[in-house]
Amino acid sequence: MQQNRRPGIRERLGLRPVINAAGTMTALGASIILPEAVEAMAEIAGEWVEIDDLQRRASEVIAQATGAEAGFITASTAAGVTLAVAGAMTGADLHAIERLPDDRGELPDEVILQAGHAINYGAPIAQAVRLAGARIVPAGEVGMVMDYHITGAIGPQTAALLHIVSHHVMPYGQMPLEEVVALCRPQGVPVIVDAASEYDLRGFLRAGADLVVYSGHKFLSGPTSGIVAGRKDLVRAAWLQNRGIGRGMKVGKESVAGVMAALKAWERRDHAGIRARERAALDLWLGTVDALPGLAARIVPDPTGNPLDRLEITPGPASGFSAAGLARALAAGDPPIIIRDDELEAGYILLDPCNLHDGEARIVADTLRRIHATPRPPDAMAPRARQTGHILGWPD
Ligand SMILES: *Cc1c(COP(=O)(O)O)cnc(C)c1O
User: Fold this and answer.
1) How many degrees, rounded to 5, is the angle at CA 214 between CA 197 and CA 265?
2) pLDDT at 371 over 70
3) SS3 of 310, please?
4) Cβ(225) – ligand 1 distance below 6 Å
């Protein structure tokens, strides 16, 4: 179905027919929305509904899928983090909720964040916290966080500890969630987990998190949205922010219905079949790259343990490409192929098979072969550009 529709609208709107070998990326449209979710969105689009009731039903679906006491849908994970932090500051005090982000120093407004968790997912996580009127209290240093860093950061102004689960997080020296919970719980400090990009909808709550924020549009393949799940009083306090700072993060009824459908579909999803398809793409790419002199490839597991492997391609000097040069060549290809580029400076690109349409794995393989056989562009060995001037000209 999507196969027929896609070229149509992209062509009509004058958009490049990009192939997504990067993963679930907001900059590429966030998700291929599941047909079940599209159907629910279309069905509710023309109906009046009472939003409180719709979100009550969403809370039930979220509770069922995550094991949480309650939950609600918001605009994005980033919005969910802001609302969760705001809720931890205000509780159910409507007057305080309207006053945010200016808490006049009367509310607990400090959020503890391990130093190696200060990530950027397209925007800084610290800013999502500050939007609520809170400030970040860093715990430890980028490569080393010990118990005393956490306990020493807890004080009378502590509203919450924010714990990030992500490949962006410093891969060593950080305190695992279980130990964070063991330090925070006796002090009454709620632990909010940003698990935007995690398959595991139950494990973080089971590990003692008080609130967990998920993306509705990453592995769940729902519409662009975020899911806040956890302890009922904290979920309620976060939900009530829709009468305050949450208004600018409003989610539409169609997205709420779409995520509910995606959550229900998740329980029935053919995970083994999806893995087998991804594996076939990886094997195809691995075989292709192995035959291209100067390029080395291996299949690597997901860094946070999601059941998803990727192909890591390291261009050696003999290839005539730097990692950034190879990424640029693929993005300039016909069709353009967008790869996972977080770790270019480490010398490799990653190909992610989780968002391909039928037939696209083959196109990626053919393009790799063609690029390798073509004379190198002048910037083939250049590192990633760190200049941002080209961004500033939008919309020109
Ligand atoms: C993607 C991501 C976000 C942002 O998610 P949105 O739903 O797009 O706002 C936040 N945190 C982490 C760890 C992410 O991976």
Assistant:
1) 90
2) yes
3) strand
4) no
Radius of gyration, CA atoms only, the chain: 22
Query: Distance, CA 37 to ligand 1 centroid (Å)?
Result: 20
255 Cβ below 6 A of ligand 1: no
Long-range contacts of 168-172 (CB under 8 A, 24+ apart): 168/119, 168/120, 168/121, 168/342, 169/116, 169/117, 169/119, 170/115, 170/116, 170/117, 170/142, 170/143, 171/303, 172/143
Give me the numbers of helices (H) and strands (E) for the chain, helices first please: 14, 12
pLDDT tens, 305-341?
999 999 999 999 999 999 999 999 999 989 999 999 9
The pLDDT of residue 4 is above 70 = no
How far does Cα 190 stand from its chain's mean position? 22
Q: Which residues pair with 162 in a beta bridge?
A: 113, 192
Cα–chain-centroid distance for residue 41?
22
Whole-number Cα distances in Å, 277 to 37, 338, 353: 22, 19, 8
164 lines ligand 1 (CB under 6 A): yes
Query: What distance in angstroms lies between residue 279's CA and the mean position of ligand 1's atoms?
Result: 25
Pick the closest to residue 189 from 164, 205, 206, 211 (CA basis): 211
Asked whether the predicted pLDDT for residue 29 surpasses 60, the reply is yes
Question: Rounded distance, CA 386 to CA 212, Å?
Answer: 34
pLDDT, position 1: 44
Could you tell me the pLDDT band of residue 7, with boundaries at 50, 70 and 90?
A: low
The mean pLDDT of the chain is: 96
pLDDT of 252 reads: 97
CA–centroid distance, 143 to ligand 1, in Å, is 22
Q: Hey, what are 41's tokens?
A: 């969105």
Does the CB atom of residue 77 touch ligand 1 within 6 A? yes
pLDDT for 225-254, tens place per residue? 999 999 999 999 999 999 999 999 999 999
Least Cα distance to 213 among 113, 79, 112 occurs for 79
